[in-house]
Each structure stands twice: as C-alpha cells, then as structure tokens.
Amino acid sequence: MADEYLALLRGPWASPATLPAEPPILFDPPILLRGAHTMNDTTADTAYQVVLNDEEQYSVWPVGRPLPAGWRAEGTVGGRQACLDHIETVWTDLRPLSARA
User: Is it true that the peptide bond before 96 is cis, omega within 30 degrees of 0?
Assistant: First the structure.
C-alpha cells in the first residue's frame, strides 16, 4: 500500500521514511460544497434507484442525479432502504463478474 501511495506522490520529497504508516483517507469527513449534494443526503422524500456496473456490482443512487461513468440503472426505484433490500435479494454472488468461473 505504501508503494502505491509513494507512486502517486511522484516527488523527490516522497520517501518511505516521510510517509505516514497508512495513506490518509481522502474526503473523510466529506467535503461539502455550497449547493452540492452528497450520498449522505437521506431525507424521507429522496427517491433512489438501483444501479449496477459491467461487473454486476450493485449500488443505490439518487434519482435525477447523473449516473457515474460505467453505471446503468437496473430499473428498481424507491426509498433508500427498499432499494437496499432489493439489492440484498438479487445480489447473491458478491464477486465481480470477471472473477466468476
């Protein structure tokens, strides 16, 4: 992990001796921008959709918010918990599609 962190820094000042034992966790707590919405926006009236990627990994995403690259809507829309319950039912093999034999 430290080698990957060091490669990201790519500078003469970056040596294993000057790096912390663990790389910092970026955006924890989330950086909030004025007018921006985060995935932590969970109000009773927020509608979510179930999304999945090409590796058949599932997630929930707010309806009306542009999907990230590589993700598509699965078709289920509802409250956050309802979407999570649906995912628990349909996502029975958590391995990425490419890792399944």
Answer: no
